[in-house]
RNA sequence: GCCUCCUUAGCUCAAUGGUAGAGCAACUGUUUUGUAAACAGUAGACGUUAGUUCGAUUCUAAUAGGAGGCUCCA
């Protein structure tokens, strides 16, 4: 079904045409590609005689405003294909000609529509606003210049893309710009620095995260929770090494499909000296840093014969994997080269698949909930095989049909609102992907539930069925968080660094007012520590106001002030991160309160 | 990897073709404090390498990192 076109999209698309008209004025030799509306704005791709600069953007904005003022009508004209091709050939617009030719080829169109606004003529399906004046000259802004490949293909020419934002009125534009500014403050890279959680060190290597004590504590809390939940759900834990023989990956098929994004093999069997001397050793072997955990779990399975009675087997591991992502693709914690998956493989019989899929979906939903992610902010995709492009996948058609159908069925049964995406499946099977948006609106895959009907074949996994015959099991691959790195990045942004008590690396600071309160403060600290609460003593010779300020900046859930009154009352003045001063509370009451909150994961 | 932009102290920022200035943080001392910044002092930086120039942090180029796109994302 076609998506309904919103009024604001029409406005944005019209703004894209106005931008193109401005570019035409600036560079009459410009060649035009495409210019759609997008979330919050629009873009237009150009092939230009020279590179655009920041100054050009300002000039183009002025030209756009002038075009708006001129009040050009957007005039639609239906035109036979031949005539349109002629028109754009004459205008030396090869990209438009190519677009029309493709429309003819793929959709068998006989006419195309052309929109004219003043001197600018464009191939366009429309619709548009009536006139350039319908676009508020004060409600759009050109944001940035970027490169983009023609038709999104790396092998094609890179065009220059101008991104803009457009709104119905000035107030909306300003609100949007303000929102961007606010989003920047929640950026996990910024908060990671402010709260001293992690850093990426040039000397260590790109995309490799160094976790500082507070960040590692956060990780620990998440991981502890993860283990607890898996125990409850009947999972067992396995562990596997960081490297493995290349043959393993050849057998799995990963080497054939994805060696390009693996770290190059380590040559093992020769010494460093021999390597330097260029000596090849006969029995040298190649080892790979593992880009995923599955072959190891399969090896564990294959170590002994299995019976149908053992199923389902649910084997989980927080396994660190390494993928050599292209440099330009790396981004903070969300796209890295070394990361720890909260992986699990479920090996089961055909009659168990559906139930297991359902249970994993429930597990995913409850996990998101535990971390405060509102499910509306999670996008779900059913990633299918592209039947046009079969060489990217293994396995037969029946297998694909069976596994795709069952995933769709279960997703529907669970009431998931999902979009289907062709060509996004793993090479060994279809999957359900759960993506969370970051502060800039980019979606990042976290959970994924993959139905694999191929690796068991490739690795010759078997079990004895009720008749004593050998049968192939099915295998589900799944992660809930995705990777700790990415998930923590998104979590930081979700909470803007103000983690709920159960996750906060430092839950309580104790702030003695004067020197004479140090001893009492120390007693408080010891008491809380004995209760398993993560507490820090702030004994610096600073004013109480200063200590409170830094506690607030560090987003510590509770600050306990200890002065004369508290010593007297054998309590602590509790300051809540959000509510402020709660007054003096008996220590026991506070311990009970915070322990309850930690247990309930409420705040 | 490709396109555009950015890189000054631990952090946030300033200035300049004639060897850099501040706030916070750090350190030392004084202060002993009542719910978002006590006072004084000390130490600390032009990403790297070339080029232009009498002289480069400033201009140019390369390189390394970073940001946003594109591509990719098992």
Descriptive overview:
By secondary structure, this protein is an alpha+beta fold. Helix content is 38%, strand content 26%. It is built from 19 helices and 28 strands. Helix 3 (81-90) packs antiparallel against helix 4 (94-107) and helix 12 crosses helix 13 (397-413). The longest helix is centred in the middle third of the chain and has 21 residues, at 350-370. It is globular. 36% of the residues are buried. The protein binds one RNA strand of 74 nucleotides through strand 7, strand 8, helix 6, helix 9 and helix 17.
Topology of helices and strands:
Blueprint: H1 7-26, E1 31-32, E2 37-38, E3 41-47, H2 54-70, E4 75-80, H3 81-90, H4 94-107, E5 111-117, E6 120-123, E7 140-149, E8 158-166, H5 170-186, H6 188-194, E9 198-200, E10 209-211, H7 213-232, E11 236-237, E12 243-245, H8 246-252, H9 254-258, E13 266-268, H10 272-276, E14 285-289, H11 294-302, E15 313-322, E16 338-348, H12 350-370, E17 378-384, H13 397-413, E18 418-422, E19 431-437, E20 443-452, H14 455-458, E21 463-464, E22 470-471, E23 474-483, H15 484-495, E24 508-512, H16 518-530, E25 535-537, H17 544-553, E26 558-562, H18 564-569, E27 571-576, E28 580-586, H19 587-600
Parallel strand pairs: 11-15, 17-18, 24-25, 24-26
Antiparallel strand pairs: 1-3, 2-3, 3-8, 4-5, 5-6, 7-8, 9-10, 12-14, 13-14, 15-16, 16-23, 17-19, 19-20, 20-23, 21-22, 26-27, 27-28
The protein binds one RNA strand of 74 nucleotides through strand 7, strand 8, helix 6, helix 9 and helix 17.
